Backbone:
């Protein structure tokens, strides 16, 4: 799993009647960050990415962007080049930071 480490769970917030912890609504709309709500959103995000990758890239998507490569899993020449360029820039930035005293 890449990206920043998830925040530690917080105390559950009080939710209105009919909204349960470990649901999309509790996390997204009510801002609860308890363990069950965080775990539900992690699973939801993984499932949504799998669904996106199985679908063809929509026609209205702009190609040649690192975002299109990552989010839509597009592997056209333009998107691959955009991703390589993005990775090169990140690498060079990290190297420059390491070389600074």
Residues:
């Amino acid at each position: 799993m890449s990206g920043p480490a998830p925040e530690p769970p917080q105390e559950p917030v009080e939710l209105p009647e009919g909204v349960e912890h470990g649901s999309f609504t509790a996390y997204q709309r009510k801002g609860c960050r308890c363990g069950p709500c965080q775990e539900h959103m992690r699973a939801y995000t993984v499932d949504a990415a799998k669904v996106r990758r199985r679908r063809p890239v929509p026609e209205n998507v702009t190609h040649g962007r690192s975002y299109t490569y990552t989010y839509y899993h597009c592997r056209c020449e333009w998107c691959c080049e955009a991703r390589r360029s993005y990775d090169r820039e990140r690498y060079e930035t990290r190297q420059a930071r390491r070389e600074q005293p």
